[in-house]
């Protein structure tokens, strides 16, 4: 039985409602749950809700969802004006579309599945001044409602192009991303019920980013949970548009501009992770690991794996067919970079398939392995299982003595890497060392001095790494940390001046060099850097002179005013020379700063 619409609710009306200070049910959600027999106001709407029978679970429907309910509408004197109970057929309708009284729309959004309530609606949320059959104008009315079920309805693209009705909810909250591999089952029909597409019984597996069938399928899949079943109503722009689709695989063609109905199930998906962030090492999770803790950098890991080339040739096995598993420490270059980086992201018990490009594999050289030779520039495939790992202890797990020893060890490892030219890893070692002796650690006064000296040493060495890696802003930041503690630290001033010169901030470089020479007037490296700075300043002045001369030349051409000569200061002699536009030329590129001869701190 259909309820007369009367003063119904439209979704567009809800969004601008002045008399609703809060969404219906918001007050109830923040208050203790209703007990059977209790009655409560829904916000400031004037709607009252009395609980007659408790529901199950905690979810409630939202505007736009399709609900199925039984209800009986009465006046306050008990006179019945509508009922679905009379014929035993519940009513299904979409919330917020004005198909029932406005207050009924609002009230149902506060109900749980199976719940039975009595709503009392004021005239503004009932049938208003107009009334309806059996309801006089301006009447307070009551609805006894039982929420049998509802289907969540989602407008995926917010334009009505893909409407998703959730028929069966999925597991957990995880949804696939563009990189993931999904297994789906579906059936596609035209409006007249003709089946036009269906995969084999076991379903169809593909990577989301590669797409399948039509764009609507992938757009819907990324909104679904594992095990979720939905019905899609797809407009032509997200289906096959004006071209339609030819008959294939025994299914008829899809005419142009066809609306499609798709029953879709996301059976499962395998998460795929871009381990290195540059699409050169991918990890597809075949089996989820235990808990939430991953091995991370510096962990002692034990793994088993089978390694193949793209043509299927197995070139190495560890921990398989009775062989010994591989044990190594991550981030120590004990295995190829791709395997190293991926292992650091794995949980205990996790099984994954790695796809590794040559940059993170064996590069452009021939690699002789246990079972086969790996040709140059080969893509590699590793099926890996994380058997066990022991994480490196975090700073908070150590006492003061252990922290100092750990920091010293990391610094020494960094120094060795620096000597070998591995500046990236050396910098990471210095960063880790600083983590162990950070300022928030609880140290005694005598320990604080040692920790401060170690921090400063690691910051300086880290700045040297940054300079080698052309990370000039990083070098500036690390040197500035040192200078916050020791404002005349010559190494910090020297290295920061180098970084400033590389970023063309010559004024800041000049300031740091002057401060360094105030602290150590005879420092040879700083003097050489000062000379290089002078050359850069001369070249900069010449470029500026040429720029301004050309600018004035254009101005004089327009105004017939003679070109005035510019005075260019010679930084190295303190004299000036007269130059004209014809004489001012850039005589070469700026010379680069001298190599950092202030060695990495080994102490």
Keywords, separated by commas or semicolons:
alpha+beta, 603 residues, elongated, 26 strands, 13-stranded antiparallel beta sheet
Can you characterise this structure?
- The protein has 603 residues and is of the alpha+beta class.
- It is 28% helix and 26% strand.
- The chain contains 12 helices and 26 strands.
- The strands form 5 sheets. Strands 2, 3, 4, 5, 6, 8, 9, 10, 11, 12, 13, 14 and 15 form a 13-stranded antiparallel sheet that branches. Strands 16, 17, 18, 19, 20, 21 and 24 form a 7-stranded antiparallel sheet that branches.
- Helix 8 (445-468) packs antiparallel against helix 9.
- The protein is elongated and about 105 Å long.
User: Which shape, going by the Cα principal axes?
Assistant: elongated
Stretches where pLDDT is under 50 for at least 5 consecutive residues are: 6-29, 561-597
Which percent bin holds the helix content? Answer: 25-40%
Taking Cα atoms only, what radius of gyration do you get, to the nearest Å?
Answer: 37 Å
Number of helices: 12
Strand runs, count: 26
Distance between the termini: 88 Å
Q: How large is the share of residues in beta strands?
A: 25-35%
Query: Main β-sheet: number of strands, strand sense, barrel status?
Result: 13 strands, antiparallel
Derived from helix and strand composition plus strand pairing, the structural class reads: alpha+beta
Q: Average pLDDT across residues?
A: 87
Concise overview:
With 603 residues, this protein is an alpha+beta fold. The protein has helices at 11-15, 26-30, 102-108, 215-221, 337-343, 400-419, 423-436, 445-468, 472-485, 490-502, 506-519, 524-559; strands at 8-10, 39-41, 48-53, 66-75, 80-83, 91-94, 97-101, 116-121, 141-155, 162-168, 181-190, 195-197, 204-207, 229-234, 260-270, 272-274, 281-287, 300-309, 314-318, 326-329, 351-356, 367-368, 373-374, 380-390, 566-569, 576-579.
């Amino acid at each position: 039985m259909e309820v007369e619409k009367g003063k119904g609710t439209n979704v567009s009306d809800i969004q601008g409602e002045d008399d609703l200070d809060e969404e219906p049910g918001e007050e109830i959600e923040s208050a203790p749950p209703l007990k059977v027999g209790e009655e409560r106001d829904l916000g400031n709407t004037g709607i009252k809700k009395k609980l007659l029978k408790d529901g199950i679970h905690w979810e409630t429907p939202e505007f736009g969802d399709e609900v199925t309910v039984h209800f009986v509408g009465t006046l306050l004197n008990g006179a019945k004006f509508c009922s679905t109970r009379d014929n035993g057929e519940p009513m299904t309708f979409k919330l917020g579309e004005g198909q029932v009284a406005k207050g009924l729309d609002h009230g149902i959004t506060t109900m749980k599945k199976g719940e039975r309530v009595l709503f009392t609606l004021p005239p503004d949320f009932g049938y208003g001044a107009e009334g309806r059959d059996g309801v006089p104008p301006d009447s307070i009315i009551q609805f006894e409602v039982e929420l049998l079920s509802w289907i969540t309805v989602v407008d995926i693209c917010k334009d009505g192009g893909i409407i998703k009705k959730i028929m069966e909810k999925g597991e957990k909250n995880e949804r696939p991303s563009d990189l993931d591999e999904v297994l789906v089952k579906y059936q596609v029909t035209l409006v007249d019920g003709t089946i036009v597409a269906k995969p084999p019984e076991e379903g169809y597996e593909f990577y989301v980013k590669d797409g399948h069938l039509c764009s609507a399928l992938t757009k819907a899949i990324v909104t679904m949970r594992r095990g979720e079943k939905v019905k899609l109503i797809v407009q032509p722009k997200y289906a096959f548009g004006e071209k339609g689709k030819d008959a294939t695989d025994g299914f008829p063609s899809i005419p142009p501009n066809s609306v499609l109905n798709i029953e879709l199930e996301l059976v499962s998906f395998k998460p795929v992770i871009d381990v290195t962030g540059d699409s050169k090492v991918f990890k597809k999770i075949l089996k989820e690991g235990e808990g939430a803790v991953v091995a991370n950098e510096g962990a002692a890991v034990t793994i088993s794996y089978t390694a193949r080339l793209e043509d299927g040739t197995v070139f190495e096995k560890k921990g398989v067919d009775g062989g010994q598993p591989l044990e190594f420490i991550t981030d120590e270059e004990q295995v190829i970079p791709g395997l190293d980086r991926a292992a650091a992201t794995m949980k205990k018990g996790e099984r994954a398939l790695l796809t590794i490009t040559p940059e993170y594999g064996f590069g452009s050289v021939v690699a002789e392995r246990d079972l086969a030779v790996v040709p140059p520039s080969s893509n590699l495939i590793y099926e890996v299982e994380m058997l066990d790992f022991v994480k490196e202890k975090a700073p908070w797990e150590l006492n003061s003595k252990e922290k100092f020893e750990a920091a010293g060890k990391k610094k020494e490892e960094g120094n060795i890497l620096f000597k070998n030219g591995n500046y990236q890893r050396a910098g990471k070692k210095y960063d880790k060392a600083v983590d162990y002796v950070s300022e928030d650690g609880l140290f005694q006064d005598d320990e604080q001095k040692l920790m401060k000296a170690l921090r400063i040493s690691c910051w300086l060495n880290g700045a040297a790494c940054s300079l080698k890696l052309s990370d000039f802003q990083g070098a500036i930041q690390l040197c500035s940390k040192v200078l916050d503690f020791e404002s005349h630290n010559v190494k910090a001033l020297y290295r920061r001046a180098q970084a400033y010169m590389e970023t063309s901030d010559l004024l800041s470089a000049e300031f740091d060099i002057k401060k360094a020479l105030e602290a150590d007037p005879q420092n040879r490296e700083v003097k050489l850097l000062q000379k290089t700075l002078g050359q850069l300043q001369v070249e900069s002045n010449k470029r500026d002179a040429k720029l301004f001369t050309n600018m004035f030349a254009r101005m004089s051409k327009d105004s017939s005013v003679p070109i005035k000569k510019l005075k260019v200061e010679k930084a190295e002699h303190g004299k000036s020379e007269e130059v004209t536009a014809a004489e001012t030329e850039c005589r070469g590129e700026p010379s680069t700063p001298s190599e950092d001869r202030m060695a990495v701190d080994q102490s």
